[in-house]
Design goal:
alpha+beta; BirA Bifunctional Protein, domain 2; 9-stranded mixed beta sheet; 5-stranded mixed beta sheet; 17 strands; binds histidyl-adenosine monophosphate
């Protein structure tokens, strides 16, 4: 039997209906925040991702050559593509530009619970502004999204990558080795960071100071310990969030983020129920447009790991109620079967979701089908009622039934 490729999944109708509903919830939040949707190709020139992250990124990409010998890659995330689209066609639009997106991303990773090779992101970017308000908007929307889905147990942490980068430079780490050090700090692997820093020639005391900085965690009171303007800046961000009623945030200077294009504020949300792959959302401020041939434009964005947040919701016991359909039309006998198709057609035309048996089933079995498809009403078509231009309408939840004129049926079902 042929299976779907490793790290990918089929979404069968039960699962997909649920996913579409939650995607709709996120879409709704994004629109409420004034964002408009954008779509970019699923594959891009591989160079786009190499420009962003360096040639090392190739090993985690699905990269391939097409028949015209072009180097292409499936997108591992969508920020780079959105910025490319901005440089190509939106750079003269009034700022700020606020866009959101939803779709599959592909990373050649070792699949495990919550980590796939094909996964979905719901993300947003604000382009053309570099203010605390911008960062606060992005964080507020991420928080609103998580809450709208009903997830209770999560932690949102805000940091500032500029502070760490500055400190790393100040203690003598050359630019080309910064990423290596940040990677270790990201995972709090101090024992692995020490030999690297030693090799570079960083003094022991500076090393320990750096580690201490990444351990700066707490409320706004810790911001006084943040060197430079970053502390004041983050304080502003948190003040705006406070005014917007977003209280579910914590300062954590240890937030490093895996992708290396961030320059200022960075943030992450995690759901502890997920164990190892607990990060459900990540983002921050960055500039990328100048890399892709545009002018330098400050941006802030984030992406929710859609699959992971759904997993976390499931683990919290959040259940999805299947939507079902409005009506299921049932013929009592064969002689009214074709008239029943006339009735289902009228209902559909009136905007009502309606289905009908196409397997020649008898009344009892057809009524069972009405339950299987979660119909709210069964429309029972019998010869006697039909002679009066009427049918029997049965409420599937209560079992109550009454005779209804066919002309009144759509209104009755709708109400
Ligand atoms: P990221 O942290 O790489 O950021 O990915 C965002 C989210 O996607 C993660 O928090 C995680 O929930 C989910 N995710 C990542 N890899 C996988 C995987 N293999 N399987 C399942 N879920 C996964 C970005 O991609 C940035 N583009 C976010 C951003 C937007 N920054 C600024 N704007």
């Amino acid at each position: 039997m042929v299976q779907c490729p490793r790290g990918t999944r089929d979404f069968l109708p039960d699962e997909l209906e649920k996913r579409r509903a939650y995607e709709g919830t996120l879409r709704n939040v994004a629109r409420r925040f004034g964002f408009r949707e954008i779509q970019t190709p699923i594959f891009e020139e591989a160079e786009l991702f190499i420009l962003r992250s360096g040639p090392n990124v190739l090993k985690e990409l699905y990269a391939f050559k097409d028949k015209g010998d072009r180097d292409l890659a499936l997108r591992p995330e969508m920020t780079a593509a959105v910025v490319r689209a901005f440089v190509n066609g939106m750079s003269n639009d009034p700022k700020p530009i606020k866009v959101f997106y939803f779709g599959p991303c592909f990373r050649y990773e070792r699949p495990q619970a919550g980590r796939y090779r094909e996964f979905y992101q719901f993300g947003a970017e604000i382009m053309g502004a570099a203010t605390p308000e911008t960062d606060a908007e992005a964080i507020a929307m991420a928080s609103f999204m998580i809450k709208s889905l009903g997830l209770k147990n999560y932690k949102m942490r805000i940091g500032h990558i500029g502070v760490l980068r500055q400190r790393i430079a100040d203690i003598g780490v050359p630019a080309e080795r910064t990423a290596e050090v940040l990677q270790k700090l990201d995972k709090k692997l101090y024992d692995e960071a020490r030999p690297i820093l030693k090799d570079i020639g960083v003094a022991d005391a500076d090393m320990e100071d750096l580690f201490k900085l990444t351990e700066t965690v707490g409320g706004t009171e810790v911001l006084s310990m943040v060197p430079g303007d970053a502390g004041t800046y983050l304080k502003e961000v948190v003040d705006y969030l406070d005014h917007m009623g977003v209280k579910d945030v914590e300062i954590d200077l240890g937030v490093v983020r895996g992708l290396d294009y961030y320059t200022g504020m960075v943030f992450e949300a995690e759901a502890p129920v997920l164990g190892a792959e607990k990060q459900i959302c990540g983002g921050g401020s960055y500039t990328l447009s100048e890399l892709f041939g545009g002018e330098k434009v400050f941006s802030t964005g984030f992406a929710v790991g859609f699959d992971r947040i759904l997993l976390a919701m499931e683990k919290e016991g959040i259940e999805y109620q299947r939507e079902g359909i409005d009506a299921y039309v049932v013929a009592v006998s064969d002689d009214v079967r074709k008239d029943s198709f006339g009735i289902v057609a009228k209902l559909r035309e009136a905007g009502i979701s309606a289905d009908i048996d196409i397997m020649g089933r008898k009344l009892g079995k057809a009524m069972k089908s009405a339950s299987t498809v979660c119909a709210r009403y069964a429309v029972i078509v019998g010869a006697n009622e039909l002679a009066r231009d009427a049918v029997t309408l049965r409420d599937m939840a209560t079992g109550e039934q009454c005779e209804v004129a066919i002309a009144d049926l759509p209104a009755k079902i709708r109400n």
